[in-house]
Amino acid sequence: MARFILQNDLVVSDTATGLAWTKDAALSEFPLTWQEALDFVADLNRAAYGGHTDWKLPNRRELFSLASHDTINPSLPVGHFFENVFHGYYWTATTCHRLPDQAWYVHMGGARVFKGMKHGSYMVWPVRLPPETPGRLLATGQQRCYTRSGKVTDCDGTGQDGAFGSGRTALPRFTDQGDTFYDTLTRLSWLKPSLCPAALSDWPSTFDAVEQMNRDHAFGRSDWRVPHIIEMESLVHMDRHSPAVATDDQRERVQPFYWSATTSAYNPDYAWVLYFNDGAVGVGFKPLAEFFLWPVAGTPQAPPVPGLAGPGPDIH
């Protein structure tokens, strides 16, 4: 089954996530401030663009769901139908919890996820979740809305992440299984942070460590591995910081940054890393011992889709 389907000349549907995106990834033509981006999408709804009035600025996990870590310029899955994709940053509707005068954006040239001042100017890519299509992405966790200066405000009519609360949730999401936390949404088991290796390591050493864990049948398992960056990002919670992690127990044990198993397509000397202070997705230089290991166990998605809850559909 193809992942992307042309709904019409203006809209592309993503069968993996249930989201529908504008085919033109540069409808605004020029970069806009964060508030201008929200207003631009509101104007699309007033004009019933593509016959719809429920467009929104994507939240962080929705926009990240388009990212491919195997391609660059643009970092989109092979077989997409999008046009005019800017190889730079696109705004999301998600505010940075620790620094609420900043909002998250995703680099569609290389898949980096970072934050910037809301008065900065970045591109806009509207999305909608058709009411007849159940969403499959994880919720970001953001519940509040903010002004451009970072003050909490009423969510009604803002078009922000907190106004929609889109995505799947579960209470409780994580089940304590002794040495691990089982994620009921992604079906992955994470070693408890207090049991993870305490020392910084270089990238190759993380693979040596999990291989040794499997030889030793550590914590009663032999399927440990270094997580893909998409799996690691699934632990991020956008209504928390320092760390911005969704797990409730042992949050204080979570280290500031972790390696992933995903190599950068820009430069294979680097691998993707997760910064848990706020939840940024960046890269680290593989030979340097500058990041930690958080082992995961369980069946990975193939191919992985950012933010997807549970194993995805059979995508070719």
TrEMBL record:
Q: Which InterPro entries match?
A: Lcl_C (IPR011460)
Q: Give residue ranges for domain Lcl C-terminal.
A: 11-128, 180-296
Q: Provide the transmembrane region boundaries.
A: none
**Cited Pfam families:** Lcl_C (PF07603)
User: What is the designated name of this protein?
Assistant: Lcl C-terminal domain-containing protein
Protein source organism: Desulfosudis oleivorans (strain DSM 6200 / JCM 39069 / Hxd3) (Desulfococcus oleovorans)
Taxonomic placement = Bacteria, Pseudomonadati, Thermodesulfobacteriota, Desulfobacteria, Desulfobacterales
